[in-house]
TrEMBL record:
Protein name: Carboxylic ester hydrolase
Family the entry assigns: Belongs to the type-B carboxylesterase/lipase family.
GO molecular function: hydrolase activity
Organism: Roridomyces roridus
Keyword Ribosomal protein tagged: no
Domain Carboxylesterase type B residue range list: 20-356
Length: 504
């Protein structure tokens, strides 16, 4: 019997589809794909119900049950986006996202795991959960390929990449949100995703007791939020390891302070909900595109390099200022690896103002609760640091990125490692992240023959960190342990002392 060419193609396609892995999550069954290198991809798994209608501005809810097999073969829609800054400490390669649709219905995650050709996982592997950055205003799962990280780990981990509500949709502040909604919805989305991992990751070959969370910029700031969440007593334990690449901690006001209430009022005005009987009901029925327009315009109107829709102290998930929790050692997680970039603040300062830069005035603009005493102290601490503009870059970088990193290190004590990138990370640096995710120790090498990194020491006590640099010729990487600059730590002590005024 002879088969037509089209029928043969059809039968081959059916066979390939039949070999694709299917995972039953209880509320839905998802079918993924297996790459030519035997890494299984499950893209666009729904971990929470669509936050639409009455669920807008509320905590994430469990996903609804769906029948049949859902295809997990395409990148999920991204959450609504707005302006964001960029940090060079992100070691994952960004992929083009121009064709990804923005929508409110965006609470999805991607899972990647090493498998055989039919998608059967190895089992009981450590898990790395990636939280994207973007100033809490931008970012998406589709920008990152978890397969790259699995290859770097020598097929030793499972990778999960999550999405969460951004901007006004995820971080609308104010007392009315507290009374008739949920503050920090974007953080609670992340928490829901971590709880999904805790419940379901074993079905993809992951060990829920060996989870490491890792983020860059606002993703690293999110890691910090989960470290201090629930007063450091989150149950069950959702992660054992934490990695921060450029920890982002902007002013985090109490939900009903002056600035959050002004932001709420501005959103209400821009979507024509002023003067109505039920403001939150009006906001929930407002057109999503109108909210997105307000989201963009309000943030663009802020001081250069600042991000307005960010986490707040909500008295429930985030019980107090993060720096206060860190000072008290109230943290979740067992071990932390932190990474900073030498020039953290440059992308967030208007570089055209160099000739007229005034670091004292800059401090007042950046932290509106400062008075002359605090601003003058900033001026004296940062006077004479490089070019006229460099002090402003340093204030932005140290107060919002670098010093919060050292606060994390101090909170974890002997359970902390520190790295500094004087150059953007390359392959010589990537193995430390996967080594840490597997063993909680960057000294345990995955590929020791090719590693050029000397032994790591704990940051506590000696204040030693690993510097990733390059030779003067720029042709070779150089990795050396160095002592943290004492003058930098002195400036960080100042920022810690004024945390009630920077609202960090």
């Amino acid at each position: 019997m002879h088969l037509s060419r089209s029928l043969k193609i059809f039968l081959v396609a059916v066979c390939v589809r039949a070999q694709s892995p299917i995972v039953d999550l209880g509320y839905a069954r998802y079918q993924g794909t297996v790459s030519p290198t035997n890494i299984s991809h499950f893209l666009g798994i729904r971990y929470a119900a669509a936050p639409l209608g009455d669920l807008r501005f509320r905590a994430p809810q469990p996903p609804v049950n769906v029948s049949g097999v859902q295809q997990a073969t395409e990148e999920p829609n991204q959450c609504f986006q707005a302006s964001n800054g960029l940090s060079p400490t992100n070691p994952l390669e960004n992929r083009a996202t121009d064709d990804v649709i923005s929508t409110e219905d965006c609470l999805f995650l991607n899972v990647y795991y090493p498998s055989d050709a039919s998608g059967t996982p190895a089992g009981n592997l450590p898990v790395l959960v990636w939280i994207h950055g973007g100033g809490y205003l931008a970012g998406q799962a589709s920008a990152y390929n978890g397969e790259d990280v699995i290859n770097q780990s020598n097929r030793g981990i499972v990778v999960v990449i999550i999405q969460y509500r951004l901007g006004v949709f995820g971080f609308l502040p104010g007392s009315e949100v507290k009374e008739n909604g949920t503050l920090n919805a974007g953080l609670l989305d992340q928490d829901a995703a971590l709880r999904w991992v805790n419940k379901h990751i074993s079905k993809f070959g992951g060990d829920p007791s060996k989870v490491t969370i890792w983020g860059e910029s606002a993703g690293a700031g999110s890691v910090l939020q989960h470290v201090v969440a629930n007063g450091g007593k989150t149950q069950p334990q959702l992660f054992r390891g934490a990695i921060t690449s450029s920890t982002f901690l902007p002013s985090q006001y109490r939900y009903n302070d002056r600035v959050p209430e002004l932001l709420f009022s501005e959103v209400v005005a821009q979507v024509n909900c002023t003067g109505v009987t039920d403001t939150m009901a009006c906001l929930r029925t407002a057109d999503a595109n109108a909210l997105q327009t307000a989201n963009t315009q309000i943030n663009n109107g802020g001081f250069w390099g600042t991000f307005l829709f960010v986490p707040v102290v909500d008295d429930s998930f985030i019980t107090q200022r993060p720096t206060l929790s860190l000072r008290q050692g109230k943290v979740n997680g067992d071990v932390i690896l932190t990474v900073t970039n030498t020039f953290e603040g440059t992308d967030f300062v208007d570089q055209s103002t160099g000739p007229t830069a005034n670091v004292t005035q800059y401090a007042l603009n950046l932290f509106p609760d400062f008075g002359p005493v605090q601003a003058d102290r900033v001026g004296s601490l940062y006077a004479g640091l490089g070019t006229p503009l460099f002090p402003e870059n340093a204030v932005q970088g140290e107060s919002i990125f670098i010093c919060p990193t050292y606060f994390l290190l101090e909170a974890f004590g002997t359970r902390a490692f520190k790295a500094e990138f004087a150059i953007p990370p390359g392959l010589h640096a990537n193995d430390m992240f996967t080594s840490f995710a597997i063993s909680l120790d960057p000294n345990v090498k995955i590929q020791p023959v090719t590693s050029i990194t000397p032994p790591w020491g704990r940051w506590a006590g000696s204040h030693t960190e690993m510097l990733f640099n390059k030779t003067d010729s720029g042709n070779e990487a150089v990795v050396v342990p160095v002592k943290t600059d004492d003058a930098l730590l002195e400036r960080c002590r100042f920022w810690d002392s004024v945390g009630d005024l920077t609202n960090q």
